[in-house]
Design goal:
By secondary structure, this protein is an alpha+beta fold. It contains eleven helices and 18 strands. It has three domains: 64 residues, OB fold (Dihydrolipoamide Acetyltransferase, E2P), CATH 2.40.50; 52 residues, Dihydrolipoamide Transferase; 227 residues, Chloramphenicol Acetyltransferase (2-Layer Sandwich), CATH 3.30.559.10. Strand 12 and strand 13 form a beta hairpin. Helix 6 packs across helix 7 and helix 6 crosses helix 9. The protein is extended and about 85 Å long.
Length: 403
């Protein structure tokens, strides 16, 4: 079997995990491995049934088109293979892991000196208030020398005898690519962030009044994402430079709105795209958000579904974030950060009132988006969210929600 191409521009993948062992009998279309590309994690299905021979190790970077395993199609299915879902071999990694842990503990216990300290070293250690058992001696049989005592550094805190272990885990190809893109975004763009606050009272009132009817009619919840997406689309149409990106010495502007939404998945942050979001209703946006979120969380999202996008919305509020400066998703030029909604005192009609307030942040590339446009864009988003019935629903809520 050769590595299939997971998408355009991807030249290699990394073996994230083998789901079968060398010599196992596999069925056609059975998932035999998970592979990481720089954009997504994908399952590799068996092309035929037979006995498998692995040709790559976990962590190996394998070129697209290279052979990763062999399947002997002439081999017959072993008797009872279907029933033995859990083979004894599957327990071996756990045993090995325990053995490794014991080895690590043993090495930690024997890493301290077994020898005693010289008289001169004892005096120095006493002056430093250090325990000789915590010093590794370099003398014969682990004896602590005067030089060892001089070089010993007192702890900056109170010794507690707690664990001091550490572990190393190789970053997946997807995580490494995300890291590269984020660093590139910081280094290659003139990124600035502007902030504002939104009174969510009007949206709260609409959702409380219509969310049950909306869910019963459309089988999807009326969340905040449809309001924010519709508000962003309106603002993008008012400020086209925010819906643009730089390509060399040229600026590309789009007459459509492909909105990327950041979703937390099992392999990290995924950013699927809602295509032509300007043509979708509230129901259409909510349905698409739900569909993409489920596919991302179940690891079924494809590279094509995450490719492109002209603007990104990220919601750190679901994790409790009060305020942040989101990083641009290149090659896009701007990203809107939503945050948690907290009841705060505000001035309304000359009096103090308590209202559900959300802080919003717009990070943008100052090379093509001026301060006036960025602030104007965020104000337009704020206005639409605070007056959704007028600015997003054309003063006809039931028609907008298709009730």
């Amino acid at each position: 079997m050769k590595v299939p191409s997971p998408g355009e521009s991807i030249t290699e993948v990394e073996i994230a995990e083998w789901l079968v062992s060398d010599g196992d009998y596999v069925e056609k279309d059975q998932a035999i491995a998970e592979v990481d590309s720089d954009k997504a994690t994908l399952e590799l299905p068996a092309e035929e049934s037979g006995i498998i021979t692995l040709k790559a190790e976990v962590g190996d970077a394998v070129a697209v088109g290279a052979v990763v395993c062999l399947i002997d199609t002439s081999a017959s299915k072993p008797a009872g293979a279907a029933k033995s879902e859990e083979k004894p071999e599957e327990k071996k990694p756990e045993v090995k892991q325990v053995a490794e842990q014991k080895t690590e503990l043993k090495s930690e216990k024997t890493s301290y000196a077994t020898g005693s300290a010289s008289p001169a070293a004892k005096k120095i250690l006493a002056e430093k208030d250090l325990d000789a058992s915590t010093i590794k001696g370099t003398g014969k049989d682990g004896r602590i020398t005067k030089e060892d005592a001089v070089k010993a550094i007192p702890s900056m805190g109170t010794p507690t005898g707690g664990s001091r272990g550490e572990s190393r885990t190789k970053l997946s190809m997807l995580r490494r690519k995300v890291a590269e893109r984020l660093v590139a975004a910081k280094n290659e763009t003139a990124m600035l962030t502007t902030f504002n606050e939104v009174d969510m009272s009007a949206i709260f009132a609409l959702r409380n009044q219509y969310k049950e009817d909306f869910k019963n009619k459309h089988n999807v919840g009326l969340g905040f994402m449809s309001f924010f997406t519709k508000a962003v689309i309106r603002a993008l149409q008012m400020y086209p430079s925010v819906n643009s990106m730089i390509d060399g010495k040229e600026m590309i502007s789009y007459d459509f709105c492909d909105i990327s939404i950041a979703v937390s998945g099992p392999k990290g942050l995924m950013v699927p795209v809602i295509r032509n979001a300007e043509n979708l209703t509230f129901r259409g946006v909510e349905s698409e958000v739900k569909r993409l979120a489920i596919r991302a969380r179940e690891g079924e999202i494809t590279v094509d579904e995450m490719t492109g996008g002209t603007f990104t919305i990220t919601n750190g509020g679901v994790f409790g974030s009060m305020l942040s400066t989101p990083i641009i998703n290149p090659p896009q030029s701007a990203i809107l950060g939503m945050h948690n909604i907290v009841e705060r005192p505000i001035a309304r009609d000359g009096a103090i009132a308590i209202a559900p307030i959300m802080y919003v942040a717009l990070s943008y590339d100052h090379r093509i988006i001026d301060g006036k446009e960025s602030v104007g864009f965020l104000v337009a988003v704020k206005e639409a969210l605070e007056s959704p019935e007028e600015l997003l629903m054309d003063n006809n809520v039931k028609k907008a929600l298709e009730l």
